[in-house]
Amino acid sequence: MEITFLGHATLSIKLAEHTLLVDPFITGNPMVKDTISLKGLKPDYILLTHAHQDHVLDVEEIAKQCKPKIISNYEIAMYFQEKGCEVHPMNHGGSWTFSFGTLKYVQAVHTSSFADGTYGGQPGGFIISAEGKNVYIAGDTALTMDMKLIPMQFKLDLAVLPIGDNFTMGIDDAVRASDFVECDKVLGYHYDTFGYIEIDHKVAQETFENAGKKLHLLGIGETLKL
User: Fold this and answer.
1) Element (H, E) at 14
2) Which residues does 96 contact at the CB level (< 8 Å), separation at least 6?
3) For 207, phi and psi rounded to 5 degrees?
4) What domains are there in the chain, each with its CATH number?
5) No. of H helices and E strands in the chain?
6) Where is the Metallo-beta-lactamase domain (predicted)?
7) Counting beta carbons within 10 angstroms of the beta carbon of residue 81, is it exposed (0 to 12), middle (13 to 18) or buried (19 or more)?
8) Residue 179 CB-density burial (10 A; 0-12 exposed, 13-18 middle, 19+ buried)
9) Residue-wise pLDDT tens for the chain (226 aa)?
10) Which residues pair with residue 104 across a beta bridge?
């Protein structure tokens, strides 16, 4: 499994026979500029944690190119189904086995609406179980006690956590979240894209190190192998 950071909260997850794309926000991200091309993205599945524009902006354009299946909560799935996309709706606590592996849709504490004001259902996160690995993608979320349920069912190999603060958890709460999910290997995301969520990278990494944990802060286009 290879996880490539495409900026903000956008991830490309490459498996042996499939590619997953999480929360595509590329053309509107000033930090990406021209380094990532939508035409180069050919996911088999798109996973959406919630409906905010900085997570769904490029869904329709990518869907036109390669016809991926969009996986999200019921409201988001129906929104894109009406636009002619192939979808698979889920909701909190549910699991489904796809051709690449199994997804569990888990709780996130945030808000969710489309740029046009359409209700985007309740936000969530995903646990991906594929190729012998378990990866938790938290989505935009506050620290929540529900995270303690995750290690009761899964032994995580990686936790992908928002660390930018203001709209989501910050660094200190992300450390607590890694305790809750019992995973000391963390990929940070949802930081630096705009002023509200800029972080001090050195302080962030030192905070995790002092807690006996490893925080990965990837550059745009960099890949973490599991």
Assistant:
1) strand 11-14
2) 88, 90, 102, 103
3) -60, -45
4) 2-221 (3.60.15.10)
5) 6, 14
6) 7-190
7) middle
8) middle
9) 999 999 999 999 999 999 999 999 999 999 998 899 999 999 999 999 999 999 999 999 999 999 999 999 999 999 999 999 999 999 999 999 999 999 999 999 999 999 999 999 999 999 999 999 999 999 999 999 999 999 999 999 999 999 999 999 999 999 999 999 999 999 999 999 999 999 999 999 999 999 999 999 999 999 999 9
10) 95, 127
CB proximity list for 39: less than 8 A, separation 6 or greater = 65
pTM: 0.97
CA end-to-end span of the chain, whole Å? 5
Both tokens of 215, joined, read 């925080």
Between CA 22 and CA 217 the distance in angstroms is 17
